[in-house]
Automatic annotation (TrEMBL):
Coiled-coil regions listed: none
Descriptive protein name: Membrane transporter
Family: Belongs to the drug/metabolite transporter (DMT) superfamily. Small multidrug resistance (SMR) (TC 2.A.7.1) family.
Alphabetized UniProt keyword annotations: Cell membrane, Membrane, Transmembrane, Transmembrane helix, Transport
Length: 106
């Protein structure tokens, strides 16, 4: 269950990062609220995951999910330009996330 909490926490990190962009510098109240809710939920699920997962495993995976997810959301929904080299490094990041999971003793 701790890994599910961690994945959900990472997904909420993507949510709050995306809604923060949509809030346009915290000038749109509805997106401001979604951002804060996303932050709170992300931290709640991360705190649940770290009850049984080591911080040295949970934190890099959480940030990795957030980073990769934010890049994908930026590319798909915000039409961010992503170079071929950036995709290579995203792939390396994914490999690193999977490697941390596989090699952890949890």
């Amino acid at each position: 269950m701790n890994w599910i909490y961690l994945v959900v926490a990472g997904c909420f990190e993507v949510v709050w990062a995306s809604t923060m962009k949509l809030s346009e510098g915290f000038t749109k109240l509805n997106y401001d609220v979604y951002t804060v809710i996303g932050m709170i939920l992300s931290f709640v699920f991360l705190s649940q995951a770290t009850k049984s997962l080591p911080l040295s495993v949970a934190y890099p995976i959480w940030t990795g999910i957030g980073a990769v997810g934010s890049i994908v959301v930026g590319y798909v929904f915000f039409k961010d330009q992503v170079s071929n080299w950036t995709w290579v490094f995203i792939l390396l990041l994914l490999i690193s996330i999977i490697g941390i999971k596989i090699t952890s003793k949890s």
